[in-house]
Design goal:
This protein is mostly beta strands and 124 residues long. Helix content is 0%, strand content 48%. Strands 1-2-3-10-5-8 form a 6-stranded antiparallel sheet, with no helix packed on it. Strand 2 (17-23) and strand 3 (32-39) form a beta hairpin.
């Protein structure tokens, strides 16, 4: 039984954003990577794409989502499905942290601008 302890989960910090790897190939997963993302208030997201479908499940707070130029709000208790190839930016214009779980199939990669695809370290 592959029980993965949060206390042993690696974290990756970017300015205003923290990624905590819950499940990934480096932690024994074969099909999906799952991480918790926490976005501090006032953070503007960077547009990027993914090569596989990605799902976000909002746990706390609210985020402004820009998906292929359309804007919506993702609030706690709701989910967002991002299709492969869509351009996504996730921002927090609120006053409290936004927390969500993100699920990406193993092998999914991120693409920023016209740079080559890469596997984010929290999904590896």
């Amino acid at each position: 039984m592959p029980l993965l302890l949060r206390a042993e989960s690696p974290t990756f910090d970017l300015p205003g954003i923290c990624f905590t790897t819950l499940s990934s190939p480096s932690r024994g997963a074969r099909e999906n990577s799952v991480w918790e993302v926490t976005v501090a208030p006032g953070v503007t997201g960077s547009p990027h794409r993914v090569t596989r479908e990605e799902t976000f499940v909002a746990l706390q707070g609210a985020a402004v989502i820009e998906l292929d130029g359309l804007r919506c709000e993702l609030v706690a208790g709701n989910a967002l499905v991002v299709e492969a190839g869509q351009t996504l930016a996730l921002s927090n214009s609120g006053t409290q942290a936004f927390r969500a779980l993100a699920i990406l199939p193993v092998g999914g990669q991120a693409v920023v601008e016209d740079k080559p695809p890469f596997t984010p370290p929290w999904a590896a």
